[in-house]
Amino acid sequence: MKPKVLLNKVSFWCVTAVTSAALMQSIAPVTANEVKIPTEVTDLGKDTYKKYCSPCHGEEGKGDGPVARSMLPKPRDFTRGAYKFRTTPSGSLPTDEDIYRTVSFGVPNSTMIPWDILTEEQRASVIPVLKSFSEAFEVRKPDAPVEVGLRVRPTEKCLAEGKKIYEEKLECWKCHGIEGRGDGPSAAEQEDDFGFPIKPFDFTTGKFKGGNSPQDVYLRFTTGLNGTPMPSFAKELTDEERWCLTYYVMSLIKPEETKK
Amino acid sequence: MKLIYVLSVLFAFLCCNLISSKDILADSKYSETEVPDGGTIIGNVKYMGELAAVGLNLYRDWELSDTSKTTSEKLICSKVNSGLKNAVVSLKDITQGKKKIIPAIHPIIDQQNNYFIPHVIAIVSGTTVDFLNGDEQMHNIHTRSTRNQPFNFGTTYKQRISKKFDYPEIIKITCDLHKNAYAWIVVLDHPYFDATDRNGYFEICDIPPGTYTFQVWHEELGTLEKEVTVHPKETTTIEFVYSQN
């Protein structure tokens, strides 16, 4: 091989490597993993909590801040360690990333806004403060996140199976209603662990509280919502059935309702 | 050389395991010993208050299906001797005593006709409880606890869920689909306890001689305490009375 050709080849590969590395840097998503979540309560965390969280969640995390009275759903009481949106099994404490996700993205259909006005560092610093309110974090450890099974395709057969589960097997309609409007026969009497009335979710609005992707909806069936009557169906449904139910529930979204 | 290396790694691993298991059991004050001359306590829990509204079936003369009749399980009291069912009698602050026997056959809490059966169970820490669904409809099992991991599982007909309770706590179990269904699990870290039967009787045996505080817990009436001296190889009779208010 001539030296010139060799040089060409080497330079080509060098350039390719450099560009791909640069691309990787810019494409790599900014996830919760990249933010360093402190393990100890910091001054920044205390200040951020006092300024932005305590008006609703209360100085001691009991969900009894000055503005909380007029709110429904009520702000979360952190003293029990019951967090709704998790990737861990039913009843388990959330991972730090789960809390970070809820703080960053907020909870639609409630007064919890996405706290993207805060810096990532500020959002991460609140997490140890929230955990310090509950003795549950001292006596228990969060379980490993559940495995999300391979996603199946939303075929008509799959949707039909989802409908069957919704209406016959799990009787989801008893709370969420046949049309998914959250108006089932047992809907009115539901209470959360703290004794406040709680409304079953209205699927037609399409603003899923734990996130709008199929995987988020799938996780809600699998993990349940701690502190609420919504149970986990991890023992009842196979992986495929949960995906079918996910697609069926998402098919209940009514476009005209989402604009309200 | 290789063997020594492998052995040392194994040893380190075992040490780690021992340390971590000690950590978990650190707060359990109870230790097991032989009790050769244990005494027995038998007794009765009574409720002397009025039972006017309790157990009253408003729909007695109506022709309704069984599920729509509402009866309360809060206070179940025998008409013969006012004995109170579903109270849990236990020794308070006992540090040494007989061996904790964790039942190999799991105690069962079944859901039948929208009720939990039994309504109250008392177990020693470390026991696994099986939750069944005996109804041909959907139920859920929702516990509220702090030390033991809470859970909330939806169950269909014939589903069985096993859960282990490791720490002493009084846990309420509900079914959110049927509001009048709930049950209690009383977890204790020593084996000296008993739940009263339908006439309010209980029996606790093999207690090391000495003076102890006995405690009785009832979901509606709260707790009562009484100091009793246990004599070796003798049976002592005690009585707890819940008066009205």
Describe this entry's structure for a reader.
The complex is a heterodimer of chains A (260) and B (245). With 260 residues, chain A is an all-alpha fold. Chain A has two domains: 43-139, Cytochrome Bc1 Complex, Chain D, domain 2 (Orthogonal Bundle), CATH 1.10.760; 156-259, Orthogonal Bundle (Cytochrome Bc1 Complex, Chain D, domain 2). Helices cover 43% and strands 0% of the residues of chain A. Chain A contains ten helices and no strands. In chain A, helix 3 (96-105) crosses helix 4 and helix 8 (214-223) packs across helix 9. The longest helix of chain A is centred in the first third of the chain and has 25 residues, at 3-27. Chain A is globular and about 85 Å long. In chain A, 37% of the residues are buried. Chain B is mainly beta. Chain B folds into two domains: 30-99 and 190-245, Carboxypeptidase-like, regulatory domain (Immunoglobulin-like); 101-189, Immunoglobulin-like. Helices cover 9% and strands 42% of the residues of chain B. Chain B is built from one helix and 18 strands. Chain B has one helix at residues 2-24, and strands spanning 31-32, 39-47, 88-92, 96-97, 108-112, 115-117, 120-124, 127-133, 139-144, 152-155, 160-165, 169-174, 182-188, 193-195, 201-207, 210-218, 222-230, 235-242. Chain B has a five-stranded mixed sheet with strand order 7-13-12-9-10, with no helix packed on it. In chain B, strands 14-3-16-17 form a four-stranded antiparallel sheet, with no helix packed on it. Chain B is flat and about 50 Å long. Chain B starts with a helix and ends with a strand. Classes of the chains: A mainly alpha (260), B mainly beta (245). Chain A binds chain B through residues 80-82, 90-92, 135-136, 139-140, 143, 169-171, 174-175, 186, 189-190, 193, 224, 226, 229-236, and chain B through 137-138, 140-144, 146-147, 149-156, 159, 161, 167, 176-177, 179.
